[in-house]
């Protein structure tokens, strides 16, 4: 059931941060069907179209009743002519024919598989497809990966990012890791494709905290990402850390990664960024926290040890911006996007994972709890399990 403070919430709001979005919604089949179109547009590089679908899907996710009539559909926000007609087709036939034909197409399956490899984005996936490659085994041969020899792909530390490969996307888009990471990721794919159960995520967090405690006692952390939104399993584990004494945070991320590496738990580091502190001049939202994107294996001493390698993201925040970071990294992506938009439109504020500032004078705000973040923006509290927008 929807929490009482959210019952009155307008599920017709155009902002996802005002809507209650459960993990599984009353119109889940429709959301799944539209998601195929969204993913296909993304894989074809049609970002604007993909975003339109993403918005419509997130509206469907918050709709608290079973949609049965066309009149219900027409008043939904972010529902343009095209989406309305697709939903009407779904109401009439129980499916969307375009989604069915995409889902069964070789191109969609191949592009999905290729872009599931860390380091391969839509552009690279299309290029590989155009070369005639169709399966991940084809990619292994193309990149010359020996699947039995992943240990030769050594850990990267000291801000050494992988060399930029030919697969880099055009300017203005997010950087992609280079070819050497694609080889690493291909070598690890059998492990990284496996879903991580919640119990294992919790065990990973416990062990990481134990190691962190040996470096700097008194740190606190929250498991964020999909697990915080209630997903029973995830593709990776995301953890945000801080220390009540802000002076202790700087450099901790690197020290922790180093220690986990020495103890055989972290085998690969895809990205290790340094602390910049909230800086209104920086436009890159995700880069002003200390973070490490890694590959992690539980130690043999753990009762949950299987040897399976897992993606683990570690994010370190100054205590002033801890709750902002927790909200930012809890997602969903659409919930964050609209929270940022809301803060800008209604309050003239800039919100991102690394801090909240007022736009006209760059005054920073430091909410002391997660609830205070919502209060600051005049929003009803939306618990993390209702942020699956
Ligand atoms: P992800 O781990 O990419 O996604 P997820 O945890 O929602 O789902 P999955 O089970 O597939 O891992 O990202 C976690 C959240 O963090 C995401 O909802 C948005 C946010 N995020 C950032 O703030 N910065 C980043 O650089 C990335 C990649 C994500
Ligand atoms: Mn995650
Ligand atoms: Mn992650
Ligand atoms: Mn970066």
From TrEMBL:
It is found in: Nucleus. Keywords: DNA damage, DNA repair, DNA replication, DNA synthesis, DNA-binding, DNA-directed DNA polymerase, Lyase, Magnesium, Metal-binding, Nucleotidyltransferase, Nucleus, Transferase. This is DNA-directed DNA polymerase. The chain holds residues 255 to 643 of 645 of the full protein. It comes from Somion occarium. The keyword 4Fe-4S does not apply. Its cofactor is Mg(2+). It catalyses: DNA(n) + a 2'-deoxyribonucleoside 5'-triphosphate = DNA(n+1) + diphosphate. Residues 157-177 are annotated as: Disordered. Belongs to the DNA polymerase type-X family. Its EC number is 2.7.7.7.
């Amino acid at each position: 059931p929807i929490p009482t403070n959210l019952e009155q919430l307008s599920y017709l709001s155009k902002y996802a941060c005002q809507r209650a979005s459960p993990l599984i919604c009353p119109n889940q089949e429709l959301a799944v069907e539209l998601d195929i179109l969204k993913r296909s547009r993304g894989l074809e590089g049609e970002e604007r179209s993909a975003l339109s679908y993403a918005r419509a899907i997130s509206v469907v996710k918050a709709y608290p009743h079973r949609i049965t009539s066309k009149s219900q559909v027409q008043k939904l926000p972010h529902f343009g002519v095209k989406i309305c007609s697709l939903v009407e087709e779904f109401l009439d036939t129980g499916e969307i024919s375009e989604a069915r034909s995409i889902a069964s197409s070789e191109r969609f399956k191949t592009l999905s598989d290729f872009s599931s490899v860390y380091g391969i984005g839509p552009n690279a996936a299309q290029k590989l497809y155009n070369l005639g490659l169709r399966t991940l085994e084809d990619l292994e041969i193309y990149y010359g990966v020996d699947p039995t020899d992943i240990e030769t792909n050594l850990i990267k530390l000291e801000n050494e990012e992988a060399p930029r490969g030919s697969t880099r996307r055009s300017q203005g888009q997010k950087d992609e890791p280079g070819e050497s990471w694609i080889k690493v990721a291909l070598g690890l794919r059998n492990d990284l494709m496996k879903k991580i159960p919640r119990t294992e995520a919790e065990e990973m967090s416990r062990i990481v905290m134990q190691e962190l405690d040996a470096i700097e006692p008194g740190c606190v952390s929250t498991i964020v990402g999909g697990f915080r939104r209630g997903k029973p399993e995830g593709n990776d584990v995301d953890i945000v850390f801080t220390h009540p004494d802000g002076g202790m945070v700087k450099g901790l991320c690197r020290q922790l990664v180093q220690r986990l590496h020495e103890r055989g738990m972290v085998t690969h580091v895809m990205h290790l960024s340094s602390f910049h502190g909230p800086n209104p001049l920086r436009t890159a939202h995700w880069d002003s926290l200390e973070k490490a994107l890694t590959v992690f294996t539980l130690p043999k001493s753990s009762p949950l040890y299987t040897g399976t390698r897992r993606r683990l993201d570690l994010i370190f925040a100054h205590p002033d911006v801890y709750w902002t970071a927790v909200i930012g990294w809890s997602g969903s992506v659409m919930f964050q996007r609209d929270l940022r938009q809301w803060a800008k439109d209604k309050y003239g504020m800039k919100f991102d994972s690394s801090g909240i500032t007022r736009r006209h004078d760059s005054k920073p705000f430091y909410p002391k709890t997660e609830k205070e973040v919502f209060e600051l923006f005049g929003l009803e509290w939306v618990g993390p399990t209702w942020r699956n927008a």
